[in-house]
Amino acid sequence: MEDSTRRSFGVQLAALSAAQMLPGCAQTRLPSRPRAGWEPAYLLLYRSGELERRVAAFSAMYRSCRLCPRRCGVDRKTGERGICRGTARVRIAASHPHFGEERTLVGRYGSGTIFFSRCSLLCEFCQNWEINHRGDGLDTRDEDLAGTMIDLQSRGCHNINLVTPSHYAPNIVAAVAAAIPRGLRIPLVWNCGGYESLEAVKLLDGIVDIYLPDFKYSDGRTAAKFSRGAVDYPEVAAAAIEEMHRQVGDLVTDEDGIALRGLLIRHLVLPDNLAGTDRFVRWVATSLGQNTCVNIMGQYRPEHRAHKYPEISRRTTKKEHAQATAWARDAGIRVLN
Ligand code: SF4
């Protein structure tokens, strides 16, 4: 099913004279919102009946949770909680049109952002620790999550931007299935930390149009220190992102520069190159290709428990960000600006 989904979508793209590969990552004209002939991949899965099967497959993963690489094995349907502390009832912190994301996601009317509570990676420097660590938010029914998606679309948002979604993938996919008959037809953005279960990412094939993963660390010891023992982060994230790229390819926009489909990787520069940016950009160029879009982010500031660690207790300097960007350009990959 996955391959046929990809082929069908390829035919759509080929027929779409409006759609174009990004020559750079910085197309910023305002949208006229045409998108004639384009539709999100999940509609194909819905019509074929495959989406319902995915809903069931994801739901079964809650019984012995392996939705992320922590593989806690807890039965979340009975209320057991693993490292992320989430149950089988999705918890949402906020939802609204967001204008602070990449311009290709924001356009004129904003990115329809839904912030999910809790997280499985739990970084010591988390900027949203009240949501991700403390779990601030409201338990929400899947039908109401579907309603939120429809509301964001009706407000003109260009996409549904699912922030830290992975530990609630079953609810999200069920909500998408419920929202489609109600008219959902804008792309889904899977805005995740990169520490993803390959099994879960494969189940998202044909559901997600835009993958927006972080790549946080090139070194496992650094990942373990700052992200709750996730020593396998570099390998796990690389495998997950390669699968994402296989599914959706390089970033594609409409004629107004609004993202329709593809991969965009975020990389936060850490002080003293703790994120291993030079290694990361070389991996992107060799494993994913030089058409891959990357956002090299320089806004690191010490939050949450970062002050406990001298290495990350200061902001990244402009010079460090410039050096990281230069490494990316030297590697030949497409750098968002
Ligand atoms: S999603 Fe949560 S409960 Fe499931 S494996 Fe990951 S951390 Fe554990």
What does this structure look like?
Helix 6 packs across helix 7 (169-179). The protein is α/β, with parallel strands linked by helices and 337 residues long. Strands 1, 2, 3, 4, 5, 6, 7, 8, 9, 10 and 11 form an 11-stranded mixed β-sheet that branches. It has 12 helices and 11 strands. 36% of the residues lie in helices and 15% in strands. It has a single domain (2-6, 18-335), classed as Aldolase class I (TIM Barrel, Alpha-Beta Barrel), CATH 3.20.20.70. The chain has helices spanning 2-15, 41-48, 50-61, 103-106, 129-132, 142-154, 169-179, 198-203, 220-226, 233-248, 277-288, 318-331; strands at residues 20-21, 91-98, 111-116, 138-139, 160-163, 188-192, 210-213, 252-253, 259-268, 293-297, 334-335. Iron/sulfur cluster (SF4) binds next to loops.
Keywords, separated by commas or semicolons:
disordered N terminus, alpha/beta, eleven-stranded mixed sheet, globular, binds iron/sulfur cluster, 15% strand, TIM Barrel
